[in-house]
Amino acid sequence: MMRKCCASLLALLATSNAAADWALNMPRGVTELSAETYYLHMQVFYWCVAIGVVVFGAMIYSIFAHRKSKGAEPAQFSHSMTAEVVWTVIPVIILLIMAVPAAETLIKLEDSRQPDLTIVATGYQWKWHYEYQGEDLSFYSTLARDSAAARMLGSGIDPFSVENYLLDVDNPLVVPRGAKIRLLLTSNDVIHSWWMPDFAIKKDAIPGFINEAWFRPDVVGTYRGQCAELCGMDHGFMPIVVEVIQENEWQAWLDNAKENRSQYANAGGAR
User: To which H or E segment does residue 162 belong?
Assistant: First the structure.
């Protein structure tokens, strides 16, 4: 029985879906800042692993090499100035090695000056409203209809049959590749949080307050996130989708979106 269970588990982990569900590390992302954040994360992780190996290795060696059954006698001293200096200086050096690059990245995270495009993202229960500053375009982004139908009790729809279940929207946020996008975040009701793992962004949207974030996507594609702040009954049905398109397609998409405002009005109410 145990062998069958182990074989079944290994087969499950071998599938791509299971591998995605069991991913334990943070994603590398598709922006310069997300790559730097990933590098810092891995650097600190490796330092912690090295420290753990040294500390626990010394502990395990001491436990076995100096156990009472081997006739070990306790040392007769109160303290060692040399040891105290060493175990103070070394952690300080390690912290400085970690702190300097981390501080540089934190400064970059807050530098939203000179953007190519500014977008105001307003959180609602339970959807997002995006307004492209200076472009006379705004729309709501809500949970896709197939996901909304499948989530209803007694719908009879198998959620596993819905592609990107609870992670798809009717109107994604569309931005051009390579452009510096400044995101101004606020809320119309309660606290929400705009979380996009592939951009290394997680910022709160607070009523009466404006938070700033920015990103410059380097890879064309569709990226999915969620509201990461418990904002009420339907918090789990408030996904975020960002579609990154080529620079030469951006103006055509923008013109088409302005001409077809009715599709946004039908989805959630254009302003």
Answer: none
Q: Domains of the chain by range and CATH?
A: 32-64+82-109 (no CATH), 117-267 (2.60.40.420)
How does 85-103 read in b/e, with b if 16+ C-beta sit within 10 Å?
Answer: eeeeeeeeeeeeeeeeeee
**Model confidence pLDDT, tens digit, residues 153-203:** 888 888 888 888 999 999 999 999 999 999 999 999 999 999 999 998 999
Backbone angles phi, psi at 179, to 5 degrees: -90, 145
Question: Are 128 and 203 in contact, with CB atoms under 8 Å apart?
Answer: no
Q: What is the pLDDT of residue 73?
A: 78
Evaluate whether 33 touches 183 at the Cβ level (below 8 Å): no
CB 119 within 8 A of CB 132: yes
User: Which stretches of the chain are assigned E, i.e. beta strand?
Assistant: 117-124, 127-132, 137-141, 173-176, 181-187, 192-196, 201-205, 211-215, 221-227, 239-245
Residues pairing with 190 in the sheet: none
Q: Locate 97 and state its tokens.
A: 């090695």
* CA-CA-CA-CA torsion sign (162, 163, 164, 169): negative
